Amino acid sequence: MEKRVTIFLFFLILNVFSVKGQVSYLEQRKVMVKSQIQARGINHPATLSAMLNVPRHEFVPKDQKVFAYSDRPLPIGQGQTISQPYIVAFMTQTLRLKRSHRVLEIGTGSGYQAAVLSKIADSVYTIEIVEELALSSKNLLQKLGYKNVVVRWGDGYNGWPEKAPFDAIMVTAGAESIPQPLLDQLKLGGRMIIPVGPHNAIRQLILVEKKKNKIIKKNVMPVRFVPFTRDEKKNKG
Ligand code: SAH
Fold first, then answer.
1. 167 in ligand 1 pocket by Cβ < 6 Å?
2. Atom of ligand 1 nearest to the CA of 83
3. Is residue 6 scored above 80 in pLDDT?
4. Is the CB of 157 under 6 A from ligand 1?
5. For residue range 62-115, what is the model confidence (pLDDT) as tens digits?
6. Which residues are catalytic?
7. What percent of the residues of the chain are helix, what percent strand, and what percent coil, each to the nearest 5?
8. How far is the CA of 15 from the centre of ligand 1 (A)?
9. Taking Cα atoms as reference points, which of 202, 198, 207 lies closest to residue 224?
10. Buried b (16+ CB within 10 A) or exposed e, 91-104
11. What is the spatial distance between Cα 136 and Cα 159, in angstroms, rounded to a whole number?
């Protein structure tokens, strides 16, 4: 009898702790959305809801989990970073996504931004140039049940012609100029958001709108981003 009581108490305590852990991550997300995102003017309901629901702590390395909901970018290994929550929300809102949209992301990294996009759009195609990151984000997204995200390892410069055209394109690595193949793969009426500027400097987040006879570009925010790199071997072939 005593043994049963001990076992019962053990599981009760275990349960309380794990529930507490989850609540605290959710609580941290609520605070993050309110104080970092809504406070800075993000008001697109689907973006706010995605930021509230995607468990950002799952996408950062173990030793960074305590900082997962801090107001800054974090290292994710391979010299790369996961963007600050506000930047993720800002770029997402700027695309004006709809449930029916097909989105292309360049720079999967941890997979976090792809997960946020997948909560709002119909499908997300995302390309990562670092093989280790492509593999780990693919596995993680699968484990967490993000069924409408497809990850591919490769150089995103050439986009994903087989799945084009896209309603929206998001580039999450800083490019020196806008890759022409990405412009070509954007649907008429589509929107692209991309950080552009010289490496090791402040870049501009540019919103590109593809209209019938013209392409409209607007600088929407100065930002810092890890560089958009090219796979020289692959591109030569
Ligand atoms: N969106 C990511 C963060 C991106 S960091 C997240 O939510 O975690 C930028 C990523 O772009 C890095 O992982 C980097 O390896 C990748 N990258 C850089 N150049 C690229 C290219 N040409 N094609 C695909 N990915 C690229």
1. no
2. 3
3. no
4. yes
5. 999 999 999 999 999 999 999 999 999 999 999 999 999 999 999 999 999 999
6. 83
7. 45, 25, 30
8. 38
9. 202
10. bbbbbbbeeebbbb
11. 21
pLDDT tens by residue, 188-216: 999 999 999 998 889 999 999 999 999 99
201: which 2 tokens?
A: 């400097």
Distance (Å, whole) CA 113 – CA 9: 40
CB 166 near ligand 1, within 6 Å: no
The DSSP output letter for 213 is S
Q: Are 117 and 170 in contact (CB under 8 A)?
A: yes
Residue nearest atom 18 in ligand 1 by C-alpha distance: 228
Long-range contacts of 132-135 (CB under 8 A, 24+ apart): 132/77, 132/78, 133/76, 133/77, 133/78, 133/80, 133/108, 133/109, 134/108
Q: Whose structure tokens read 């970092």?
A: 36
Residues 6+ apart with CB under 8 A from 166: 102, 103, 104, 125, 185, 186, 187, 190
Decide which of 124 and 11 is more confident: 124
Ligand 1 centre to CA of 156 (Å) is 9
Residue in this structure with the two tokens 């509230």, named with its chain if needed: 52
The domains located in the chain, with CATH, are: 2-230 (3.40.50.150)
Task: Say if residues 132 and 157 touch (Cβ distance below 8 Å).
Answer: no
- Buried b / exposed e over 195-218, threshold 16 CB at 10 Å, is bbbeeeeebbbbbbebeeeeeeee
**152 Cα to the center of ligand 1, angstroms:** 12
Any ligand 1 atom below 6 A from CB of 83? yes
